[in-house]
Amino acid sequence: MSAGPIPDSLPPDVPDPDVSVVIVNYNVRDFLSQAVRSVQTASRDLSVETWVVDNNSIDGSVDMLREDFPRVHVIANRENVGFGAANNQAIHASAGRYILILNPDTILQEDTLTALVAFMDAHPETGAAGCQILNPDGTFAPESRRSFPTPATAFYRMTGLSRLFPRSPRFGRYNLTHVPRDQVTDVDALSGSCMMVRREAIRQAGAFDEDFFMYGEDLDLCFRIQKAGWRIVYTPDTQIIHYKGESTKKGDFRYVRLFYGAMLLFMDKHMTGRGSRPLALLLKAGIMIRAGMTLCGNTMRRLSAPLADAALVIVIVSAVGALRFWMTDTSFAVRFFLTIAPAYALATVAGILLLGGYDARSRNHLRAAFLGTVLGFLIVGTLSFFIQDIAFSRWVVALSLPVAAAILVAGRVVRAARQRGSRKALLVGGAGEAERLRRMLASHPSPPFRLEGYVSDDRSGETDLEETRPVSPALPLLGGMSQLRDLVRLRGYTDIVFAARDTSNQAIFTAMRNLHDLRVHVRMLNEGDEHVVGKSSVAHVSLASLQGTMPEVVSLPSARARRLRHRLMGLGVLAVWPLLWPVARLAPRSSPLRRLVGLRSGLVDVVRGRLALVGCAPIDADRIPRNWDVACALFPVMNTSASRELEPDERLRAYWYYVTHASIALDLEIIGSHLRYHPPTA
Minimal CA–CA distance to 272: which of 286, 290, 284? Predict the structure, then answer.
């Protein structure tokens, strides 16, 4: 194990702090920043030191800590040494009476530290204490309190009996679901995402067992603390939010191996001799079966998109082949349907996979779908020249290419439009933060959601009137916190953005619990940040957050290729315009299809080269450097009325982002945004 140097402990003349907060980080910089801020806010009236052990992250976490939080103690490991080992580094170097083990993807309530310290001080027999843990949607997380996985409790959990009978003391034993959540309870184990441990208990029971690389180490530590004679207690006096699993996604094979491997290790270490050996062996078999089922389920979810594409290509090629046999009045060739159609589908899916088309992090899904289809065509078409028995299929293969490419690309466009286009948000906080978010979204060519207004904290005497007064007619004050649930329920908001500067964590937690049964995505906007943090995602809402500062020298993508792409896209729409027109006439006037059909003359100008399909607005034409080659367009990059209020530098940055990131996907996102919300320029 290679680790960075451990800093010296506090000098003798400095009193020991009340709490040492220990956070292990691995590639979750934005969540970590949010967690450290919440620790600082919760440190009032206490002496608190914060330790962050970074397990060789590549996302700039260490630099962020040293720049934004200079008082935080940082241990930067040169490799990922695991959760337990990294915690031990900080535990041995820290000096607090109590140690708070905290995950980086958590947010503390303002009173979390004081409440836990007060509880530990009042109960000196308690070795470790935990509090209420909330899911990102505000629901209570059952892992806030747990029992050890004995053969009986594990059997009830894996067979689903614990879910069927949660109020039963027998079947609900593992997560103590039969005990009210607002009741102080002695438990077997707490969650390592937020667990305050007495230093004396650590000295007696030992620190984390480093054989547990990730998962299970909290169970093991609680087991040893309890064995040493200390109580393990759950208290409902305070609460935190836990985003869960940001460092290791639960769909990964690595997660399955680490999680279920940890359960087996715990069984080997502590369950030997507890109950009959046959039951223990049965439990191990159950864990392995459950791990296999989880892995199979995750694999099937990952294969669903490739299998759907393959099935679609097979249907298209088979339909074109059947049409060929019918038009030529020839008998059906069974070998065509058993060889050509599956081969075309397999080659297409392989091409999309190689080009990153099934990678959720990729931004080139459309290009991968198109080029993957072309690759399938080239492979099968080439084979037809070497295998004479399938030479008759060349006409079918050639005709299937544009049909398959168009359908695969169109399906992805529609799916992306549904995910992005219908998201509308409101901000909870002051007018200043609402206006800041609005301006960032206005300069973004492809914003993650639309901000339609804001809600202020309406508790009397706690909000500055200037902060709640609207600063822009485009961003109305929708109401107060007491009206938040009704606004979401009746107006269908999909995203709630909480401004951390203006809203206390306690108020945020309360609001989240009040909204837990509504389908709404909760996000956090920290003061000064240019991104919002939500469950399993960090949405960049400003161009500066996406690309940093504008470099002085950069290799620009081919403007000629961009112009050719625009002409071909315009020509494609004109080609199907006769089919779209009668359908559009039946749609509402405000529908995207109706707006698109009304742009025939503008599309003709695009094909003739008089207009770009996507580019600049006329008022910006003289501001953009000539070498960027951004022409006046049917769909300007700056696609909102609010963008007219932006400073010239902000508008220029938006065009620079488009020039350096131009792609079919970005063009379609900008076009879709225009057609959904904004009248085109022509």
Answer: 284
Comparing C-alpha atoms, which of 238, 237, 235, 192 is closest to residue 91? 192
Region class of 103: left (phi > 0), else alpha (psi between -120 and 50), else beta: beta
Please list, in sequence order, all residues whose beta carbon lies within 8 angstroms of the beta carbon of residue 612, skipping any fewer than 6 positions away.
563, 566, 606, 630, 631, 632, 633, 634
CA 177 – CA 162 distance, rounded (Å): 9
From residue 515, give the alpha-carbon distance in Å to each of 38, 475, 518, 521, 642: 22, 23, 5, 10, 30
Q: How many CA atoms lie within 13 A of 225 on its CB side?
A: 32
Q: Contact 354/407 with Cβ under 8 angstroms? A: no
pLDDT tens per residue, range 147-196: 877 667 767 776 777 788 888 888 887 788 889 999 999 998 898 899 99
What average pLDDT does range 17-43 have in this prediction?
A: 93
CA distance 493 to 495: 6
Q: Concatenated DSSP letters for 463-491?
A: S-HHHHS-S-TTS-EEEEGGGHHHHHHHH
List, for residues 398-412, the tens digit of each pLDDT value.
888 888 888 888 788
Distance of CA 342 to the CA centre of its chain: 35
Q: Report how far residue 534's alpha carbon sits from residue 523's, in angstroms, rounded to the nearest whole number.
A: 4
Q: How far is CA 157 from CA 154, 160, 172, 176, 447, in A?
A: 5, 5, 8, 12, 42
Cβ proximity of 573 and 564 under 8 Å: no
Query: Hey, how many other C-beta atoms are within 10 angstroms of the C-beta on 103?
Result: 26
DSSP 338: I
Distance, in Å, from the CA atom of 192 to the CA atom of 203, rounded to the nearest integer, reads: 18
Closest CA to 534 of 20, 14, 30: 30
C-alpha distances in angstroms, 151 versus 145, 257, 277, 287?
Answer: 18, 20, 10, 11
Beta carbons within 10 angstroms of residue 547's beta carbon: 15
d(CA 598, CA 593): 9
The string of pLDDT tens digits covering residues 188-241 is: 889 889 999 999 999 999 888 877 766 778 888 998 999 999 999 999 999 999
Burial (CB count within 10 angstroms: exposed 0-12, middle 13-18, buried 19+), residue 75: buried
Token output for 616: 């600049």
Q: Can you name the residues that pair with 20 across neighbouring β-strands?
A: 49, 99
Q: How many residues does the chain have?
A: 682
Instruction: Provide, rounded to the nearest whole percent, the portion of the chain with pLDDT above 90.
Output: 27
In DSSP terms, which residues pair with 537 in a beta bridge? 534
In Å, what is the CA distance from 267 to each residue of 58, 127, 277, 288, 532? 34, 23, 11, 12, 41
Q: What gap in Å lies between CA 208 and CA 214, rounded to an integer? A: 11
Task: Supply 592's token pair.
Answer: 């995207």
**Closest residue by Cα to residue 136 from 243, 288, 270, 240:** 243
User: Rounded to an integer, what distance in angstroms lies between the CA atom of residue 575 and that of residue 572?
Assistant: 5
Contacts of 582 (CB under 8 A, 6+ apart): none
Residue linked to tokens 């399993």: 536
How many Å apart are CA 268 and CA 262, to the nearest integer?
10
Q: What is the DSSP letter of 551?
A: P
548: left (phi over 0), alpha (psi -120 to 50) or beta: left
Q: Which amino acid is at 481?
A: M
Nearest to 271 by CA among 257, 287, 293, 252: 287
Contact 455, 480 (CB under 8 A): yes
Q: Quick one: tokens of 326?
A: 């019918």
Q: Is 622 exposed, middle or buried (0-12, 13-18, 19+ CB in 10 A)?
A: exposed
- Contact indicator for 215, 128 with CB cutoff of 8 Å: no
Q: Which of 95, 67, 173, 141 is nearest to 535 (CA)?
A: 141
Backbone φ and ψ of 597, nearest 5°: -65, -30
